[in-house]
Design brief:
The radius of gyration is 13 Å and the shape is globular. By secondary structure, it is α+β, with helices and mostly antiparallel strands.
């Protein structure tokens, strides 16, 4: 079973699946006229945080009410309006 918050198996890391999904979300947000994309990632998920930071997302705080009890969730945002 995958750890809480993991959307894909670790064996898929590096295959471009995450980048393709993020590209689509960001493009859809732009097409809808959104100013930014906001997401939440487990603070302890260093690989995911590094992935989003490399794409230009910046940490803007912590989620007040975590989905997974006993964890801290970081909020990230990316400006998509250009």
């Amino acid at each position: 079973m995958a750890p809480p918050g993991r959307l894909r198996p670790a064996r898929a890391a590096g295959e471009g699946i995450g980048a393709a999904l993020a590209d689509r979300v960001e493009a859809d947000a732009r097409a809808a006229g959104a100013d930014r994309v906001r997401l939440v990632v487990l603070e302890a998920n260093e690989a995911a945080r590094a992935f989003y930071e490399a794409r230009g997302y910046r940490a803007t705080g912590e989620r007040e009410e975590s989905v997974v009890e006993g964890t801290t969730e970081a909020v990230y945002e990316l400006e998509v309006r250009r």
